[in-house]
Amino acid sequence: MSDAPELLVTPASALVDRPRRIGLSGFTPRAQVLLRSTLAHPDGSRWESAATFAADAQGRVDLARQAPLRGDWQLPDASAPLWSLRRLSAPASPALSEGLAPLTVTLHAADQAGRQATAQLELLFVAPGVTRREVVEDGLAGALFTPAGPGPHPLVLVLAGSGGGLHEQRAALYAAHGYAALALGYFKTPGRPDHIGDMPLEYFETALRWARRTLAPRHDFVAVSGVSRGGELALLLGATYPHLVSAVIAYVPSAYLHGTLRAGRPDQARDATVWTLAGQGLPNAWKDNPHADWTRFDHPAQAGLPIRQAAAFQSVMGDVERLAAARIAVERIRAPVLLVSGTDDGFWPSTQYAEQVVDTLQARSHAWPVEHVVGVGAGHAIGVPQLPATLIAKPHPVSGVVLDGGGTAAANALASERSWRRVLGFLARAAGARR
After folding, report:
1. Which of 62, 209, 288, 434 would you label with 389, given CA atoms 20 to 30 Å apart?
2. What's the CA gap between 159 and 180, in Å, rounded?
3. Is the dihedral of CA 381, 169, 413, 423 positive or negative?
């Protein structure tokens, strides 16, 4: 037992999507070792996770190969100390919750004999050489991330969901992998409306044309990537402007257009128009739908629980004619399509929607690749890998209503990691095909 205990993290500082190796050595042979992870988030919140392992005969533990005896995860997984982090205190500065500042996680291991070791792990969103600049041209509001090295670079337009704002973390990660990425704000960001209603698609057409004219992306490649309502929008833009969209990535999307729901103005009905084209509102599945049942949208299954609203979206499917009018005409897309969904989505039935999109494209003999990444047991929160995945229920950013997004932390984390690898491969193939 002359070797000092050691907690080794490799790499200690790297992009958030880069897998780590976490190993312990020099602990008491066959002792129980408690590994605790803590995060003091830049937004002021505090997070913690913990698990107990049995050291081997040499006093070692390898998280990638060894399941804990007990704790916040059950299977071998070196990323588990990160995604299993539980929030112990609310943020003091919520605006920083999805910011670009590095996250520093402290790992501490101790065995029953008092042998202990500490290490730190840094999660980065911005790769060396990536630059960020505000975009306030042509009436647009956004943030452009440009990769290191000479261009031109293929471009990804990054769209947020019904929470609004900018998805800068995702945009920064796209840039880390060689794509110029424009996190485009369309509501709830400076210079744009506070709510989602009556949103002209021409705004996004302007962004697509501005990007091609100003940024001159490599081989004229412009992909559109969106999450939730942004996934609905990504499919809609691909169908409306097929000559301007080179690939579509739709995370937990809808196959239909919906009303403003929780993101509209306080004076708007929840079935009010979201998207307009040439000054005309596009039909949505809820508007004047006699089958619409808002019960599960407004009330939890049991008193005191957060609202799991997905069942309400099944009700509007009873009006076949109205649903057909609200369907996104995905067969008009002239580009590769990647869909990501969760089978336990509590927000809306994203797997059912994604399967409908795939079925439509296959039935119409879509000439480009179509992929569907299914997160089995995952919910609505599929996104950046290795970030805490334990906030299954949280307030909607616009309405403040606490919603149950579905899934488990483990399933959501696994879906985030697997889908991100698929997204990167999909983009590489789609951009490469433009040569």
Report:
1. 62
2. 14
3. positive
